[in-house]
Amino acid sequence: MSGMKGKPAVKNVLVLGREPERLSIEERRALLGRWIALQIYSPQTLPLRRIEAIGDSPADCIRQLRDRGLSPVDFEFNIWRTV
After folding, report:
1. Which pick of 14, 59, 72, 81 has the fewest CB atoms within 10 Å?
2. What is the pTM of this model?
């Protein structure tokens, strides 16, 4: 995140696996402008809305998911825009 002066750093390990609605204000602020991956809802999987990857681009999130043996096809990628 170089070049983003004044923006707090987020420790991915503290946010991964958590529901976006349960993040603190500081965690939300640190995610502003970052991409997150959430599992796509389907009646078969009924996933909890948990953050499974955080990156500077969708490609970065896809790489992280693949590194964990997860299929990017099962995820939606959104840029975090709200505190």
Report:
1. 81
2. 0.77
